[in-house]
């Protein structure tokens, strides 16, 4: 039996008004794979991630499939219920909503049933311990007054609890010190065990020292310029985007 991708796109194009930002992306992420999407500022990486999740600011053409089912016409919350997760580069604060309440409501929405307080608290605190989050964060308002590293831990904590089929992580490593980077990476590795697929958008090699990608894509001018293994990220580290993307080597779109 042939293996099917858990997440795939075909000729995905993304527009702001009539301006094309993403200009045709084909992507296949198989169960258990970690893909890194790297590229210079302004190349369209974050736009692609937001559009794949259904952000209403973008018009999308092409096909997006999750577990073989087309989802390009679904609203963001419907995609989430199907098993998609987006970790934000800049998580927003939600004053007045405690972390535990937010996570319990999110779990209930995705699992289709009310989460009993006792069992859920046990599950929540196990995730807190795994990521080194103090228990008192359960009663703090979501991301309100949190440091950058604390906000990113909250994103990974949500991912651990919600157990998506496919996770999009948009520059989850930005602004992290080395200790926070290790914690976030540990959470990503935990989630990616088994048959979960991950697409990690990043500028830098440093997170890939902790989250070993199976596939690396380099994005340029709204397209995947080339695809390779982990060695491609090392080439970027050595040569920079300008050097690598103008040297005339490597395959375009994984060809």
Q: What's the total count of β strands?
A: 12
CATH architecture of the domain at 7-90 and 166-254: 3-Layer(aba) Sandwich
According to CATH, the homologous superfamily of the domain at 7-90 and 166-254 is P-loop containing nucleotide triphosphate hydrolases
- CATH class of the domain at 7-90 and 166-254 reads Alpha Beta
CATH structural fold name of the domain at 7-90 and 166-254: Rossmann fold
Number of helices: 7
The biggest beta sheet is recorded as: 6 strands, mixed
Radius of gyration, taken over Cα atoms and rounded to an integer in Å: 18 Å
Tell me the strand percentage band.
25-35%
Q: Helix amount, in percent?
A: 25-40%
Average residue pLDDT: 90
Low-confidence stretches: 249-255
Q: Can you list the strand order of the major beta sheet?
A: 6-9-10-3-11-12
The helix/strand class is alpha/beta
The rounded distance between the terminal residues' Cα atoms is: 24 Å
| N-to-C SSE string, H for helix and E for strand | EEEHEEHEEHHEHEHEEEH
Net shape: globular
Please tell me about this protein's structure.
The protein has 255 residues and is α/β, with parallel strands linked by helices. It has a domain at 7-90 and 166-254: 3-Layer(aba) Sandwich (Rossmann fold), CATH 3.40.50. Helices cover 35% and strands 27% of the residues. It is built from seven helices and twelve strands. The chain has helices at 45-52, 76-82, 99-111, 117-131, 148-162, 178-192, 230-245; strands spanning 7-16, 19-29, 34-38, 59-66, 69-70, 84-87, 94-98, 141-142, 166-170, 197-202, 215-220, 223-228. It has a six-stranded mixed sheet, with helices on both faces. It has a four-stranded antiparallel sheet with strand order 2-1-4-5, with helices on one face. A two-stranded antiparallel sheet has the order 7-8. Strand 1 (7-16) and strand 2 (19-29) form a beta hairpin. Helix 4 packs across helix 5 and helix 5 packs parallel to helix 6.
